[in-house]
Amino acid sequence: DVKKAEKCVSIESLDAVLVDLGSISNSRERAAKMFKWIIHPVPEAPFFRDTWEKKPIYVRRRNPDYYKGLFSTAEFDRILREENVQFGVNLDVTSYTNGKRETLNPPGRALPFTVWDFYESGCSLRMLNPQAFSSTVWNVLSILQEQFGSMAGANVYLTPPGTQGFAPHYDDIEAFVVQLEGKKHWRVYNPRSEEEVLPVFSSPNFDQSDIGKPILDVVLEAGDLLYFPRGFIHQGRCLPDAHSLHITISSFQKNSWGDLMQKVVTAALEIAMEEDVEFRKGLPLDYLTYMGVQNSDKKDPRREKFLSQIENLMKKLPDYAPVDAAVDQKAKDFLHDCLPPVLTPDELATSVQGAPVRWEDGRVKAMAPHITTQTQIKLLRAGCARLCSDGDAVHLYYTTDNSRVYHKEEPKSCEVQAEHTDAVEFLIHSYPSFVTVGSLPCDSTQDRIALAELLFEKGIIHTAEPLQS
Amino acid sequence: DVKKAEKCVSIESLDAVLVDLGSISNSRERAAKMFKWIIHPVPEAPFFRDTWEKKPIYVRRRNPDYYKGLFSTAEFDRILREENVQFGVNLDVTSYTNGKRETLNPPGRALPFTVWDFYESGCSLRMLNPQAFSSTVWNVLSILQEQFGSMAGANVYLTPPGTQGFAPHYDDIEAFVVQLEGKKHWRVYNPRSEEEVLPVFSSPNFDQSDIGKPILDVVLEAGDLLYFPRGFIHQGRCLPDAHSLHITISSFQKNSWGDLMQKVVTAALEIAMEEDVEFRKGLPLDYLTYMGVQNSDKKDPRREKFLSQIENLMKKLPDYAPVDAAVDQKAKDFLHDCLPPVLTPDELATSVQGAPVRWEDGRVKAMAPHITTQTQIKLLRAGCARLCSDGDAVHLYYTTDNSRVYHKEEPKSCEVQAEHTDAVEFLIHSYPSFVTVGSLPCDSTQDRIALAELLFEKGIIHTAEPLQS
Amino acid sequence: DVKKAEKCVSIESLDAVLVDLGSISNSRERAAKMFKWIIHPVPEAPFFRDTWEKKPIYVRRRNPDYYKGLFSTAEFDRILREENVQFGVNLDVTSYTNGKRETLNPPGRALPFTVWDFYESGCSLRMLNPQAFSSTVWNVLSILQEQFGSMAGANVYLTPPGTQGFAPHYDDIEAFVVQLEGKKHWRVYNPRSEEEVLPVFSSPNFDQSDIGKPILDVVLEAGDLLYFPRGFIHQGRCLPDAHSLHITISSFQKNSWGDLMQKVVTAALEIAMEEDVEFRKGLPLDYLTYMGVQNSDKKDPRREKFLSQIENLMKKLPDYAPVDAAVDQKAKDFLHDCLPPVLTPDELATSVQGAPVRWEDGRVKAMAPHITTQTQIKLLRAGCARLCSDGDAVHLYYTTDNSRVYHKEEPKSCEVQAEHTDAVEFLIHSYPSFVTVGSLPCDSTQDRIALAELLFEKGIIHTAEPLQS
Amino acid sequence: DVKKAEKCVSIESLDAVLVDLGSISNSRERAAKMFKWIIHPVPEAPFFRDTWEKKPIYVRRRNPDYYKGLFSTAEFDRILREENVQFGVNLDVTSYTNGKRETLNPPGRALPFTVWDFYESGCSLRMLNPQAFSSTVWNVLSILQEQFGSMAGANVYLTPPGTQGFAPHYDDIEAFVVQLEGKKHWRVYNPRSEEEVLPVFSSPNFDQSDIGKPILDVVLEAGDLLYFPRGFIHQGRCLPDAHSLHITISSFQKNSWGDLMQKVVTAALEIAMEEDVEFRKGLPLDYLTYMGVQNSDKKDPRREKFLSQIENLMKKLPDYAPVDAAVDQKAKDFLHDCLPPVLTPDELATSVQGAPVRWEDGRVKAMAPHITTQTQIKLLRAGCARLCSDGDAVHLYYTTDNSRVYHKEEPKSCEVQAEHTDAVEFLIHSYPSFVTVGSLPCDSTQDRIALAELLFEKGIIHTAEPLQS
Description:
The structure is a homotetramer.
Chain A: H1 2-10, H2 14-22, H3 27-39, H4 44-51, E1 57-59, H5 73-82, E2 91-97, E3 100-103, H6 112-120, E4 124-128, H7 135-148, E5 153-159, E6 174-189, E7 216-221, E8 225-228, E9 233-237, E10 244-251, H8 257-275, H9 277-280, H10 301-320, H11 323-337, H12 345-349, E11 358-360, E12 363-365, E13 376-379, E14 385-390, E15 393-398, E16 413-415, H13 418-430, E17 435-436, H14 445-457, E18 461-463
Helix pairs in contact in A: 1-3, 2-3, 3-7, 8-10, 8-11
């Protein structure tokens, strides 16, 4: 009963939610539950039907501890103290005073001594990609990315009482503003025109006079949530009596139909040129004399003919559109963007990362765990690996060797031999069930075991039980 | 009377043809005449209707002097002696013996001593882009490029008696093999498959067993012509009793509808994303779970819906296709590929290149020729400049500062101010007539003169009479 | 009483030694004590007089716990598990079997599963620069670098029983082989020739037949030490009954008189050219006709004259040698090579890294600690900062922003204004005593405080007491 | 009789001089004669003893045609018309008005129309490296470079009446100002200080108030010469009644003893480190604590000891100085800087460039000229090739494939096998005499012929008689 599960989740703290999720075997289900908890009590289906990409929504919870454990200013302080936070790379110091927006980053490492000095003098602090420093944020985002099918990112904003750190502007992402501490006065405005609905790029900073009247004017308190789609202008200002700490969770940057269409039409045209000689025929010798902007006002029957031929060819393009291959191009980008999964203790114990091989008493213990045909295996996450066709070869792209730092690692993939593709596809489609190595559709037992060992070593699969040596 | 003109041209030598062309005021007409002379007595219209891009044609003239003056082995020798010809850059030494194709370029400059030694030992010589060294070839190609609306290139091939320099292969260009000296046995074969008709890329070297039976098997003698479209496999071998010198004039590389379509669809999609919110809407959250190669065999109603949406968007694309702007993108590439025009003495005397400003008797004579409103001006060539829209700004691209060496110069253009675009367009469309500077549709006399001076200084226009100071 | 202190140190464990060192206020003294502990019971003065750079020495301790805590295979295992260890970057897998040396690194991250599999199959493991992963190794090396005045590095070697991981070879560094676990049979050989005494570069791998007879043939057991200078060939092999873990601490790479001389003569010549016109005079017009290798056998009086002039100029060079400036060039390189200091809790509490500024209860506590003229300050380490003259300007180079990873950070420096150089020099020479800010030889109180704040923020100094706000 | 020859040369025009030089077999003699003609009637020996690098000299000839044929404004005009002269690369437009120096280059090609417009408006024109466009300048400089043993360069300056194009300044080269047309008022000033005598770098532009009083104040007329050493400040201004055209021939840029010393000391130190263990010994552990700028005021006996050791090592350096090898390093740079030789018709007919191999009547004539043991050979120029030792291998560097455009070609060399070095040295030292191929000290006739063929093909040697096939 979904309703019940939802309710069950909703009253839990983040810690409890995370424990609960551990008992769900399907990472996509986990992602959905996590997302429900974030937008609770707004139900998911209506949210995606009526609100998502359409309008802002404000969730008032009157429960300041709802998001507790996700991030805190104490954690912010610890990170400054213990991690190598660099101004301009991991942390921005900003101010917005008398309509003027400034960035005040000095060079070098951001130590608490300097950072808190900026804060005390009224500057806002934006920590970029806190998932690189906070394991909890990493965990939450790595779960959510499977809900969105698109990279989930985050920034943390700490603002002193009575100040504002940013000018009004809109972003190119869907934004979930999660209030963690204190409170903040938010104003949200409609996109200024049709062209700025769901925009492709973020806006510059606006003047107050550019943006009209807010359609939402609320004070977010700890535990509250504010969502607004890309293109909605927004600004947040601290009340005189309280600081504000919030984390903005974002997704759907460059994840539109048009973004996919770029891959589709490029690939479609390439195939059309290979398969259809009409695309390979030469242009008319004289087309430059009647086409082009300098000839666009000419009445010339050749123009009609030329335009009609272009239209004919464009109409043929859908016949050649390799939609699945284009989706794979997009998927490959997504897998590179993904955070690597955070493993539960059980997952750790049954995967290469925690394989029971260790040094004890002067020698290696439990060496070379045996994968046999009876070993039960499963992908570590529904979306941690994907078969993609690259022209002639088939590659398996995977997220498990990605870094917590965005694109610090190159895209990871390995070629999958023709005799292994069915088995990999079988494994992917069997998720979330475990399958025995012996059931993989390969030609020989040797092949089955070799494939399973490869996937195990890459950290893509784990086993039902810790391996025995 | 075109027929008569044609006949008139056909019996002329190249020198006479070039003189004749000098009296034609329209460079496009000149280009057409030059082309007719090359394919004479094949008439132009049927050629382009029945032969061009369709099949090879062999023109036997029994007039060894027909192409005299275009290029010769004596010129080849002179170039080696006087110009800095580099192996691998301007000259290739090749052989094809017992089915094995080799390139034998040593490093450094190609001096006659070494080159003729290779030749005597049975190697073929290919001079690349002889237009950089031969003014006649430069002149002919620069005229022809206006006939093709696409870059006209050339290579020269010198082959010792009884040898062959290249393996059978096909190219990615339309080829006119112009036999200049000696003779050569040519065999031409059909494309091997539908996919290799009008191919996008040249082929590798073929074995004799790959290519079937020739559809054309002829001996080209001096004065003869052989044309074959891209994709037709060919090989030429010298008879034991004679060397062969030919020049291959080529065009239509990457000049297909598909090549233009790449610019059209890229631009169309960009505009669609700006103008149509459907393109900016986000992809379904879960599309990666049912789309992509690994899901292509799945029966899933969501796949149908997704594919149908892609199709809808593709169908909308033609509405946004900025065909003229895309043609301009292609035209800009062409203008960069173009050879600069070779000026006649009259043109020289009336353009910046030969402007009557010179140093005489210790001082500058005839300084600062005055362009007045009465000055009559005209583009130097129909295609030597073109107005292209680059997003917001309008630029005039031009060929007159290009180099005889391919792409040695960057693309040349200058921005055209909004108040000058009508005048530039007027000038372009007035070609081949002269117009007075005073008739340019500008706001003021000052503007008219400033524009004319700019175009004159860039070498884009010339005047009806030499300028007076 | 040095003897007593030595004895005191010698019986202590590493942990106790480190605690003891914490009570020594001078980092150079700490470095000396640490070094004495490492070579104990060999006394320092005779070591540097008779052994250092001269011959190997073997210290047998019969105390397997002597170096305990420095590093262990358990730590090795932990690092593989918890840190991002990359094959080829942080870890090498090697073997030396039947005289053949191989490196067997796969691509990607080195997880225990794979690493221990290599080990079990007889491969040796070399962890490069363990200081990046082990805080203890970092601490020990950062202390020792002040003893050597040259970078202190380390590698860890783990070898399975009965195997050898490396061919005989010599290195370009002074090596201290510290046996941590198990035992290893070592053979050390004299340099093969005068030219290979104290060599500039490491050797290739040798065959057993190249290296003659060992001059030292011992079995190192846990707690033992082996030192040998650069140029001494060595090989270590595990006995069949025990694995071996050792750490090799190294120093004095490119730290010879000749390395300094390169900086001296380059700078000397530059100054000579500025100051002495003899160096700026032109060469003889005809010198190329009698000098150079092709003329070296000629009897020509001009050769004598030319050579004598060169000799004269060389003899003048010492007059222009800016030795101190050249030493600073070398020092700058060393400061860039240095590990950043590991701070004691007291140092942390009194420096910018642990400045009592933190977030508590929703606000910043103990903000903006005040540096006053009474504040007592001191460099964090004798060698953590150095004034160097760069032509006209004076810069302060410092190590405190370096990374544990070699050269991950650019060299760090800040320009010191002319009015501050005396004060910085005073501070440096006052080490290890604290001085009050008020005693800095600056022009004004404002200057004194500004300078102290700058040095405090860069992490170069700490205060006698934690700062009060 | 040198006097006579000198006189003979002196009354000749440039054309006659060049013809005369053609009859001199030794290119170094030719260079000396050419130089004498330039400075005539100043005798060479006193010039180099008293004037060269010491003071300016003014030669008044009252013969406006003396340098006729070297360059002219008509040639300037022709070059603009026929060659691809680019502003900023080959031509600078400058002005110096009211104490302000400006460079006014537009982008792109410098056509006469634009250039003469600048000139008429009072701008000076500087053509850089006219040897790329003028064969006569190329010829003269390529001859002179053998006189200087250092690159000979040139710039041409054309100045309108009554104007000045450059601010007062000094250069880093020896300058010979050769007045070709019109006249110019020159003022030359002493170097401002000892440090600016024979300076290493050119000066910035000076104010009139910086430079004191001229030591030379003359009006140069056509046929006159002005020489001044590097470091002498100079300015030239046209009189109101005449334009000025002069060419400045320059040499001895970076050709001082100090420039050679850089190569000597670097190489000496390298050898010292290989051969002398004192250079390889480590620095004192504690040297950074008493050496360096921050310790330079310390009284410390260790400082004395350290400085004395540096001095000892510096005193040893001359023992290791490989002067001939260092000269070869300098020579290699010079050979790369050299202009390729301009061949006389006789030289052309007897070298690879004019080898009697050509295409005639449909076939290669006089193919493969035979070099036999009787063939007499000789270097084309004394300095066109040089044997240089590069560590283990010996290379022959040569100038004959250099370009007229500075450093357009990479340095050219070929390795000389050990069995050929004696023969190449023999050939070089035999210059200017011809030697037979049979007399080359090689092991076999085959070797002798192979070597001669190689040198012939590289254009390094020519033969006494045109080769016969």
